[in-house]
Amino acid sequence: MSLLLLATTTGLLYSTLGTTLDWAQDQFVAERIEIIASMFTDNNASSEEVIGEIIRETGARSPARLYIRVLDDNGHVVAESSGMGNLLPTTLFPKPIVWKSGAVESIDLTSSSGTPFRAAAVVVAHGMPAHAHTLQVGVDGAEEGALLNSYRSHALIVVFISLVLFTASTWFITRRGLRPIAALSGIASQVGPNCMHPRLDVSAWPAELTGLARSFDLMLDRLDENFQSLQQFSADIAHELRTPLSILRGEAEVALAQTRTTEEYRELLAAALEEYQRLSSLVDSLLFLARAEHDSKPITKAKLDARSEALAVCAFYEALAMERGVAVEVSGNGELYAESILLRRALSNLLSNSLSHTPANGIVRITIQYGNESGIDIVVSDSGSGIAKEHLPKILNRFYRADTARARNGEGIGLGLAIVKSIMTLHSGAIAVRSAPGKGTTVVLSFP
Fold this sequence. Notes:
This protein is an alpha+beta fold. It has 3 domains: about 1-150, 2-Layer Sandwich (Beta-Lactamase), CATH 3.30.450; about 205-295; about 300-445, Heat Shock Protein 90. It contains 11 helices and 13 strands. The strands form 3 sheets. Strands 1, 2, 3, 4, 5 and 6 form a 6-stranded mixed β-sheet that branches. Strands 8-10-11-13-12 form a 5-stranded mixed β-sheet, with helices on one face. A hairpin with a 5-residue loop joins strand 12 and strand 13. Helix 1 (about 1-40) packs antiparallel against helix 4 (about 140-190), helix 7 (about 305-315) crosses helix 9 and helix 9 runs antiparallel to helix 11 (about 415-425).
């Protein structure tokens, strides 16, 4: 674009210079005709006076650039500049026009020697009786042509040098500008399942591309995190499925080793049913987490009474709470926007955990209160065994169980709190866990 602008500007300047030189020559020709014509019309000068004027006009110039010729009524030459007859014969000039002061039309001529001229021819009527003289005036345009040729040559040299410089600078800038892109491409080609750690060094990058580099590194960080999470998730699934399947296979092999009674087969089927239920619960939980993370459809929220929802969940667990000797209390009021099924599932998971970890004569409280920015907090607290400090940062991770003894006994699969976290994410809310060994656990669900 810059080169095109330079070429256009140079062309316009060349055209303007040519037009200006032509105008200057036209003015010069018109002035000479005006002087000679005025001698005929104003002073009724004789041929000798006209010849003398011509000699004065042209003789002082060496080499001559101005040529003047005067023709009489019959077309005979009365006077002319020296050498004009051979250089500019009378027949070379156009048909003359009647002279009027200030109205002279010039044209381009080429002499017999090939020299360019700017020329004009007029008829001047004068005297009594009337006479008519024809004036032919030409100005050598060789100097102007040389000036234009010189300008054109220099302009072409400037445009050529500019083209070379523009090409070189464009190549250099493009190569330098694409160097970061090449580095980005190189890093991208290295990334794979076993190589997620290459990062870009943006210290030497231009400021316009550092944002892209940082975004690329953040993308790699997210990919690395998700890939590690997927690997861990796959390993956890394999581990969780292997245990019940091993139990089922072992019990079946023992049962088939010898003939059993009907009662023994019933006991075997009852034990297998427990493992089937465990597997079904695991699959349901995994499906819920997968849908919660990858389903792009927004959940359907409605205005709910938090106390009513909490009481409904407590009623479902009333029999289990009585069996374990644990009291359940609900206090506070508030309304929130949520999906009823998901809200009840979150409260159900929390209440189930609390009942599992609270000893007899303990208590589980569900408190509904206003939180920050006019939101609603549902607080589930218990007087159970609590959680050690080192487990709290991981307690919301999938398959993480702080109580390994309960895990060996088949209680829980380590997905309850992970599901609660996903439910709160779907509601644009937050979950916080506070706990200490021997002092119970408090979980706060904050809804916007």
